[in-house]
């Protein structure tokens, strides 16, 4: 989707943090931007921060865990702007702490928002993109935690790793149909995600963790990346059809160690030529070589 101007984007969780940074960048690129969010005061602040009510901006309530509501939201976006070209599954939440303290409600809430939310987005929007035939893009906001798991975030890591795998699989399937897929894996960014429990619905009560609240985006250190910088990086990644959008080169050592650990675990035995011939699609995916070439050409 090299030309964004005049096209339409849906951004979930787009009223604050990384979502607001993406919204700002895509609006500046000339897209119609439809923000779906659950936090009323954040939606008011986002509208003001983006220049107030305007022709190319729609800000409305959306609970991504509600599949029917997502479909209605997509209907409203089409009624306002016409064809939808970009779905940014950005809404996300987190709980942190020892996994043995996690309740069923903790698992349900994070999985419902972080994984089922993007699934609901796909079900509501992907058929519309494929139907109009103008091409499109799916962006899933995962995390470097999905690539480099760490203690104390088991539920969050589970969902973000799932989003990365889903994005890679969708890229393989949808690119030939004119729909590109990217996965955003941000590192430390100044956002309010550590205070996600402020939006936890009553039907997910019974957390195993004590809600202490974290620092606001304004209270986080300056060495963390700003959300607007992430938004601009996302805009560039969408325009250049990147599969992976990463934010911090500091993850290189960890990513190399993980890749080497996986390779080291391969068994020491000869390859079976019959297996190689019969199972090629599950043994090698050309999207990775294509992404290496694409990234080389874009830097």
Quick structural overview:
This protein has helices at residues 17-28, 40-49, 67-81, 104-132, 154-174, 227-239, 252-264, 273-278, 280-283, 287-298, and strands at residues 8-12, 32-37, 57-61, 86-89, 136-141, 179-185, 244-246.
Short descriptors:
alpha/beta, 7-stranded parallel β-sheet, 299 residues, globular, 45% helix
Describe how the helices and strands are arranged.
Layout: E1 8-12, H1 17-28, E2 32-37, H2 40-49, E3 57-61, H3 67-81, E4 86-89, H4 104-132, E5 136-141, H5 154-174, E6 179-185, H6 227-239, E7 244-246, H7 252-264, H8 273-278, H9 280-283, H10 287-298
Parallel strand pairs: 1-2, 1-4, 2-3, 4-5, 5-6, 6-7
Structure write-up:
By secondary structure, this protein is an alpha/beta fold. The protein is built from 10 helices and 7 strands. Strands 3-2-1-4-5-6-7 form a 7-stranded parallel β-sheet, sandwiched between helices. Strand 4, helix 4 and strand 5 form a beta-alpha-beta unit. The model has no long low-confidence stretch (mean pLDDT 94).
- Report the structural category: alpha/beta
Following the backbone from N to C, one meets helices and strands in this order, namely: EHEHEHEHEHEHEHHHH
Envelope shape: globular
Q: What is the helix content?
A: 40-55%
Instruction: Report the radius of gyration as a whole number of Å.
Output: 19 Å
Number of strands: 7
Main sheet summary: 7 strands, parallel
Oligomer: single chain
Low-confidence stretches are: none
């Amino acid at each position: 989707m090299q030309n964004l101007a005049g096209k339409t984007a849906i951004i979930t969780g787009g009223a604050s943090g990384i979502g607001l940074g993406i919204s700002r960048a895509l609006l500046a690129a000339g897209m119609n931007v439809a923000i779906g969010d659950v936090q009323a005061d954040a939606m008011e602040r986002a509208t003001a921060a983006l220049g107030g009510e305007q022709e190319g901006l729609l800000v409305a309530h959306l609970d991504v865990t509600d599949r029917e509501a997502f479909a209605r939201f997509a209907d409203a976006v089409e009624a306002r702007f016409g064809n939808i070209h970009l779905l940014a599954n950005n809404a996300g939440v987190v709980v942190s702490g020892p996994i043995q303290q996690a309740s069923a409600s903790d698992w349900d809430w994070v999985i419902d928002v972080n994984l089922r939310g993007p699934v609901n987005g796909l079900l509501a929007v992907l058929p519309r993109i494929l139907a109009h035939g103008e091409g499109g893009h799916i962006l899933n906001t995962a995390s470097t935690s999905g690539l480099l798991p760490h203690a104390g975030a088991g539920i969050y890591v589970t969902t973000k790793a799932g989003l990365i795998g889903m994005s890679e699989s969708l890229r393989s399937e949808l690119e030939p149909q004119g729909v590109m897929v990217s996965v955003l894996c941000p590192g430390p960014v100044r956002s309010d995600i550590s205070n996600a429990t402020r939006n936890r619905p009553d039907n997910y009560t019974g957390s195993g963790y004590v809600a202490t609240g974290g620092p606001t985006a304004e209270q986080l250190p300056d060495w963390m990346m700003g959300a607007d910088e992430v938004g601009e990086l996302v805009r560039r990644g969408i325009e250049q059809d990147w599969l992976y959008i990463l934010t911090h080169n500091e993850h290189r050592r960890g990513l190399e160690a993980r890749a080497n650990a996986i390779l080291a675990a391969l068994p020491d035995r000869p390859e079976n030529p019959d297996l190689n011939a019969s199972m090629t699609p599950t043994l090698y995916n050309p999207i990775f070589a294509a992404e290496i070439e694409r990234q080389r050409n874009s830097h």
